[in-house]
Amino acid sequence: MKKLILVVAALTIASCQQQQKIGYVDNVKLMEEYKEKIDFDGRFKIKDAAMVKKRDSISQAYQFEAQAFQIKAQKMAQSKAQEEYNAIQQRAQQMGQLLQQEEQAMRAQGQVELDSIVSTVKREIKAYGKANGYAYILGGGEGGSVLYGEEVNDLTEEVVSILNANYGKE
User: Fold this and answer.
1) What is the pLDDT of residues 50-94, one digit of tens each?
2) CA distance linking residue 159 with residue 93, whole number of Å
3) How far is Cα 73 from Cα 70, in angstroms, rounded to an integer?
4) pTM for this structure?
5) pLDDT digits 0-9 by tens, 95-140
6) What long-range pairs does 38-45 form, CB within 8 A, spacing at least 24?
7) Per-residue burial over 11-46, b = 16 or more CB atoms within 10 Å of its CB, e = otherwise
8) What is the C-alpha separation between 75 and 6, in angstroms, rounded?
9) In angstroms, what is the C-alpha Rg of the chain?
């Protein structure tokens, strides 16, 4: 019995001495300050603005064509006017589908790039944790698992600095 108590006491003391390092990273702040993510956002906004401009331009051209057709249709036979109206509508529908496909492709490519950025961040956090003896690095910020953490355990700035220093070296 005494041996059992000594073993439990020894294990308790050993576990107290082997306290594990735990840190956290504010995911939102990290992504807002990571240069690669900032560059991605800028590129994506430019592509999105170009897509909106293209869509608006095509829509405006279709509206002009429709207005011109309305004037022309007044002088046409009903069946011929309906035929041309259907052709205009079909071209507009095809153009709308083409634009939608382009937009979906752009968004899919953006998601692939974003996933790559997230993978890079995760790899860097893991490498940082291993190199600095952390047992756990938790994610904070919106949707994160850290509801409270002492600032001394906030590794966000250190990880952002490493990520930004490595960005562009690859």
Assistant:
1) 999 999 998 898 888 888 888 888 888 888 888 988 998 898 899
2) 49
3) 5
4) 0.75
5) 989 999 999 999 999 999 999 999 999 999 999 999 999 999 999 8
6) 40/110, 40/113, 40/114, 40/117, 44/110
7) eeeeeeeeeeeebbbbbeebbebbebbeebeeebee
8) 106
9) 30
